[in-house]
Structure formats: structure tokens, C-alpha cells
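S.,

Sequence below, as promised.
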Amino acid sequence: MKYVVYQASRRGGRPVNEDRVAYAYTSDALFMVVADGMGGHNHGQVASQMLVQTMVSLFQARAIPRLPNLQGFLLDGIYAAHDAINEYALRKGLKDPPRTTCVAAVVQRGTACWAHVGDSRLYHFDKRSLVERTRDHSAVQQLVEEGLLDEDQISLHPDRNKLYNSVGGYALPDIEISELVPLKEGDVLLLCSDGVWGEIKDREMLATLRAYPLDRAIRHMLDHAEFRGGRNCDNLSMVAMRYGEERFDEGELVLGDDFGLDGFTTQLRQLTPQDRDSVRDMDIDQAVAEIHAALAKYGLDKPTA
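The prediction came back faster than expected:
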């Protein structure tokens, strides 16, 4: 399986970065995830961190080197993260559990599958057009579907951040999951937080992806989104993969066909000093214990035949 993958995250104009982004891979499978901690709830960055770590841990347990069930993996991972976040809140005595959005995708044997909760998005582009994007779980998305708002007005609407679905909280997340989607040479899967898509339109994403190698394309999009967002720019996070041969200079890109791994490798976004300060009260050891407990609760910490 040949592909290139690249990720990046920026704090923007916010005091801390509540986004978390990661990818993990074996020789036969690739996993990507973006989580955006919900700032209206305490410890949003804790929720996003726990979600990413939970799903990466599950990928490491199951992808040996392939996942036996793509949709099952995504559902199990998000539900396990939900349990881990709520257990953390209970043990810390928090009045309201922290919450996060998420969008996650797996690619294996030329087939992709993705799932999301909230308004972090996945875009599927081919060489010429937008093939599909996820549907936001938000009040303004409902207005669009009812014909009361244009798609291009979502990012400008005052209720844009009102979500009715999250990971963490008193209600189970309503996970929207795709069918298995075959990928063609040159297809791109792009996952991002709302800080990106709120400033960059899908046609601009497509034009940038067609013009530049993946790493440069992502940096250009983040530059423009950060500039347009101004002093109060939201956190910005993206991870993307281009399936097949990269038709540009390779630069710093990771080439999927060069892994040759029997195990797995993971790339987590490194925390900045500001981010470390924001999660200092998290009790890292306890949070990790909650993650492993959530996986073990349903036997998800063991490889699946």
C-alpha cells in the first residue's frame, strides 16, 4: 500500500491548544485521528488527549498488521474513549465530564472507512473534485439541511459552535460511520478541526492539494487559516494522506511503502509548553490508567484474531 501522510497542529490565537492529532501505521494499515476539546467544558484538552491515546492504543492492539474489522475498530475506539473520559471525570470529582469532538479514519488494502462525532471533519478528494465530506453534528448544519442557510455561511453563523453530539458527557455519542470506500490513485483523505474548515473552503483545499506536495499543502492551508482567523484564531489541526504515488518532490513526507514493519509506529503531536501547563492537573498516570481500564473492560486491549 503506497501513500504519503502528514500532520500539523497550531495554537492559533488561543491561550492553549485543545486540539490533538495523531496517526499510527503498520505495514498494512494506517490510522488517523483529530480531536478538538470542547472549550465550553472544563478540561476539554484532557478529553481530546484521552480520545487520541485511547484510539491509538486500540490500533496498536488490533492492527497485527491488519485490522480485522475497520468499522468495528472505529466504533469500539470511540466508545472506549467515551468511557475513559467519564471515568476520569468521576475519579477527579468533576461536576461536568470533559468533552471532545473527533474524526478518525482507517485505510487498509486500498479501502477507507471513517467515523466522526461533532464538527471535526473528513474530506475525501479525488484528483479533480470533492467526493464527500462528513456532516457536522451542529445546529447550523441542520439549518443547511432544511434549506434555511447556505453551506458557505456555516462558518459565519453565531451558533456555529453549538454541537449536539460529543465524546464524553452524560449521553452516549451518536457515532456516524461511513461505508467501506475504495480509494483511487491520487485520492486524498483530509481530517481537520473547525479552526481550519471555518477559514478554508473545500474548493481552496482542492486547489492547494493539486498544486503542492502534501506537507506543503497542509502548511499553506494552516498559514492562510491562521491569517484569516486573526488575533482570535481558533486552534488549527490537520492530518491527511494521499493514496498512491506522490507526484511531487518527497521532501519530509513519510512513504507508506517504505515502512516494512512487523509492528506499528505512531506519530503524536508534541505538546507545546503552554499545552503542558494546561494539562498539568490532569494526573497523567491516572488518565493513562483510565484508558487501559476502558480498553480492558471489553477485552479491547488484546489482539483480535
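DSSP finds eight helices and 13 strands in the chain.

Coffee later?
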